[in-house]
Amino acid sequence: MHPTPIFTNHDKGQALIFAADYPFATLAVNGTAGPVTALVPLVFDDAREVFLGHVAKANPFWKAAQSSGKAVAVFRGPDAYVSPSSYPSKADHHKAVPTWNYMAVEIRGEISVETDAVKMAGYLEPLTTRMESHREEPWKMSDAPADYMAKLSNAIVGFSLSFDAIHFVEKLSQNKSEADRGGVIADLANASDAMSRDVAEIMRAREKAELS
Predict the structure, then answer these.
(1) Could you tell me which residues come within 8 angstroms of residue 167 by beta carbon, excluding any fewer than 6 positions away?
(2) Are the C-beta atoms of 114 and 153 separated by less than 8 Å?
């Protein structure tokens, strides 16, 4: 991602929190015939400082990853189209064009593939624990029959992704005046799609935090 300074958040901790909040990532590696992508949930292992994930053994991504050795992961939050008509200043000078507001974290690093079915629990349990943590009675891998889990573990491949570089972009109209940001928030808050309303809520929360 292009790290435009005004939209770049350099806080690694906040970037990792964002990735945890939006774990379903787009992964890309260089295959022999060109780029190969996969859509997978990734969870951060604090002890090893790597992201863990898995794909089906039938998915060609893991073989491409094995030969590539390097990967890019992108975690995306809510995004929204911003109309020039959202800006009150447009009525004064008409110097406004459409744009898009969004938040995303990009991770670049080494990817290591694990094919041993016996070791798959180490890739599955952290993800399950993370995603079930909000439930009163979280599901555990041990809840399923052992032979069933062994069969499924033979059908997947695990991988870990370190990060040599991490970029956190928050493009939320920071380059606009307070009045124009207010116009964007008002427009998005009344949008028909939930994602636009989510962007409005995030922008509103940022405005309040800066004033406090």
Answers:
(1) 1, 3, 8, 15, 105, 106
(2) no
